[in-house]
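Researcher: If only I could read backbone structure tokens as easily as an amino acid sequence. Walk me, if you will, through where the backbone shape changes along the chain. I have put the entry right below:
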Amino acid sequence: MKRILVTGSNGLLGQKLTELLVKQPDIVLIATSKGEDRYPDQDGYLYRSLDISDEAAIRRVVAETNPDVIIHTAAVTNVDVCEVDKQQCYHLNVQVVANLAAICYEHDIHLIHLSTDFVFDGENGPYREDDLPNPLSYYGYTKYEAEKVLQNAPCRWTIVRTILVYGILQDMSRSNIILWAKGALEKQQPIRVVNDQWRMPTLAEDLAMACLLIAQKEAYGIYHISGKDMMSIFELVNRVAAFWKLDQSLIIPVSSDELNQTANRPAKTGFILDKAIAGLNYQPHSFAEGLSEVDRQLSSRIAQREINIKH
């Protein structure tokens, strides 16, 4: 039995990991997040409330639960918030990783750390694992600093970089670009969407599966994990509209400069996935398949909600 502790288990990836790991007969899951457990079906795993910024609290939970692997998903991921509140961003995105690395070394734990395409400047995407990072934002800077911390740490580590993760939670508590666009267009609201940034959006289930494969295979080093389709954000939102038969004329293309966001974003990221496909047997969904999966889950949630109302 492999004991896997997940940080940030209330987040999108965290809940998809819970959903996946509880089904594995050879895995004991320890889910941790700040506050109460928000996963709806709380059977088959341990949950510990954990403030990841508190090193003593991490040490207590690790000593109590004795994990073989930690999948570290918790971070400050709002790019513009990081640009403004640099102190908190650095502490949670860099110092916490340094603390985890030290604890993992002491207890011989494999640390799987989630990173981002925003470590790159977007000049030469798509990127391989050994391409040199050059972040444009403070968020990207902290994620790259955390990567460097791990690369110099004596613990067993894996860095998983990913891109624009989408999906839905069972309690529908978190939004992302897919749900935001769908929701706004259903309300007939015009939306301004950037047309000069390109990404390879990642289905949350694919990312969770990649983390499981890395844990099972004890794969170390850096892995690029994303969807397989490259598109502009403008095209992405138009594909969302087309899928749900919503009014595409409400989607207004704008440049990055016009959006006037606090933090700079890379123009074109994207990943070359050869290493993950060959080494992990990683098999990402296409974007069309990902939208179908989101739609299936949405229909299931709505049906379940109607059953609950009747009872």
Remarks:
- The longest helix spans residues 287-310.
- Residues 122 and 268 are 4 Å apart (CA to CA).
- The mean pLDDT is 96.
- The radius of gyration is 19 Å.
